[in-house]
Amino acid sequence: MKNFTDFQSQLPILEVDRLEAAFEIDGEWHNAVDNISFHVKPKQVIGVVGESGCGKSVMSLSLMQLLPKGIGKIRNGEIKFNGRHLEKLNEKEMNKVRGKDIAMIFQEPMTSLNPVFTIGFQLAEALHNHFDISKQDARRKVIHLLDRVGISRPEKVVDEYPHQLSGGMRQRVMIAMAIACEPKLLIADEPTTALDVTVQAQILELLQELQTANDMSIILITHDLGVVAETCHEVIVMYAGEIVEQADVITLFECPKHPYTELLMKSIPRMDQEEEVLASIKGIVPSLKNMPRTGCKFVDRCPKAMEECRTITPQLEESSPGHGVKCLLYESSWEQEGMKAK
C-alpha cells in the first residue's frame, strides 16, 4: 500500500521548467517534448502515462542528457536537480550525476546489457565509475546487489552473461545496476515491458521495496494505468509531447477531466463489466512532421472537440487545487481569446 506522505511541505529534488526537446527531420527541428513543467519531491513516485509516441521516453532521455547527438537536442527550458542546472553540464560533469544521483532503468534489458561482458563486470563498472573501490570489494558489493534484487545463486550469476539469464532476471540486473550507487532519483522507463504478468508483479514489488528502503524518488514511465494506480502518488498524462493532465493518483482515477485521459480510462478492461468489444481511441498520435501548429493537438481524435479547439491553443490550468488540465473545456480564458480571434 502506498504511503501518501504530505509532500506539500517538502522542497523538490527535481524541477523541470518549460522543457523542449527536439529532433532534426529533413533539416528542420521538431519538438518531441513541448514546453512541459513538473517537479518531483523526495520519496515521491510519479507516473508518466500515454500512448507510444507521446514523448514519455524522450522526456526521460532529456532528463539524463542522453538524446542522440546531432539529431536530438534540448531547445529550451531548465532541468534542476537539487538546485543544480543539469542542462548546463558538460559530458564529464553529467557522467558524475548519472548513476550516482539519478539512475535509469531502460525499456529493453537485453539490449541495454552488453552481451560480451559478464553481469559482474557490468555492475562493477558502475561502482568503479563513482567510487574508489578495489576489485574484490566491488565483486562482494555486486553479489550483495544481485542478492538484494532477488536473484538466486548470485555467486554464480556474477560470472554469467546476459544471454544465460531470463528476461525477468535481466530486468533485475538492470535494477541492481540502477541502485548500485544509491541514487536519490530513479527513472524507470517501462520496467515491466515484455515480461509475463507474474514477473511484472515481482518487479513492481521489488521497486516499491527499494524505494522505501532507500528513500528514493521514482519517475515511472508506463502505458499501464493499472500499474500507476497501484504504485504512484501523482500522475502526469502526456499526449503529443505535452502534459495534458496532472493530478494525484486518487483524483485522476476518480475524476479524469481531459478527454484523452477519459478515453485512456475507458480502454482499461474491467472485471465487474461485460464488454464484447474493448473501448479504443480512434486515430493515432500525429507524427512530429505533422504536428498541429495551433490549437489542441488532440482535436482530430477528441469526441468533445469544438470549433475553437482548432484555433485556440489551450494552457495547462488548475481546474481544481492540484489538478491541472490542458483543455478549453476547463480553461477560464478561452472565451475571451475566442472573441479576440473573431
* Helical/strand content category: alpha/beta
Instruction: Give the name of the CATH superfamily of the domain at 14-244.
Output: P-loop containing nucleotide triphosphate hydrolases
Radius of gyration: 21 Å
- Strand order, sheet with most strands: 6-7-8-3-9-10-12-11
The total count of helices amounts to 12
Name the helicity range. 25-40%
Terminus-to-terminus distance: 52 Å
Top-tier CATH class of the domain at 14-244: Alpha Beta
| Number of E-state strands | 12
Main sheet makeup: 8 strands, mixed
Beta content:
15-25%
Quaternary state of the chains:
single chain
CATH fold annotation of the domain at 14-244:
Rossmann fold
Name the average pLDDT.
Answer: 90
Query: Could you state the order of secondary-structure elements as H and E?
Result: EEEHEEHEHHHHHEHEHEEHHEEH
Shape: globular
CATH architecture of the domain at 14-244: 3-Layer(aba) Sandwich
Give the low-pLDDT segments: 333-342
